[in-house]
Amino acid sequence: MNDVKRGRGRPRDAGLVARREEEILAVATRVFAETGYRQTDVQVVADRLGVGKGTVYRYFPTKEVLFFGAVDAGMRALVECIDAAVSGLDDPVEHFERGIRSYLGFFDRNPDLVELLIIERAEFRDREQATYFVYKERDHARRKAFIEKGIASGIIRDIPPERIMNVVGDCLYGAMFTNHFSNRRIPYERQAANIMDLLMNGVFT
Questions:
Q1: Global pTM?
Q2: Residue 181: exposed, middle, or buried by beta-carbon count in 10 A (0-12, 13-18, 19+)?
Q3: pLDDT digit string (tens) for 8-31?
């Protein structure tokens, strides 16, 4: 969290700071998604918030910091959404089903984040790792442990967990972009059910 200047002797309201950051990032996400990174002027973000540009810069000192703050906030929200959907589920089948539906549903409701992921790749190709994959790596050990538990119970095939995670992850990653680019109208619930059907039953008879 970025530090915020305050008057001498005035206590810092952490809750107010967090709310203001969320407001700025929500507006910045929309503006970046609408106009791209290079074309975005922080003044536009400030105008939509009804504050001075200096207020935005006190929380996010550069446009780049603001952009990556928006991407990071979106990815945190995605992780929180999926975690809430699968919380307390021990059945691997139900866990996969709810996780897939939650993932597709989140991006269906948040198309601006898809735009930001595209912009990040286009404008910051020299970064060591894109934000999406940073978050994916952070959750690797937990997902692997869950799959290993399913393998041990006999519910999941005894194949390398990384293979399962890569195939399912690539499928969802591709579906997210395909849905966005093609403006696909298949309800995400049905799409999730289709993916689960192929995971469970395969393609060939």
A1: 0.90
A2: exposed
A3: 545 568 888 999 999 999 999 999
CA dist 191 and 13 (Å) reads 44
Cα distances (Å, whole numbers) of residue 25 to 28, 94, 155, 165: 5, 33, 42, 31
* Domain positions in the chain: 69-201
CATH 1.10.357.10 fits 69-201, yes or no: yes
The stretches of 36-160 forming alpha helices (DSSP H) are 42-49, 53-59, 63-86, 92-109, 111-123, 131-138, 140-152
Amino acid, res. 63:
K
Query: Which 8-state DSSP code applies to residue 160?
Result: -
Read off the amino acid at residue 168: V
Which residues are within 8 A (CB) of 174 and not within 5 positions of it... i.e. 6 or more apart?
Answer: none
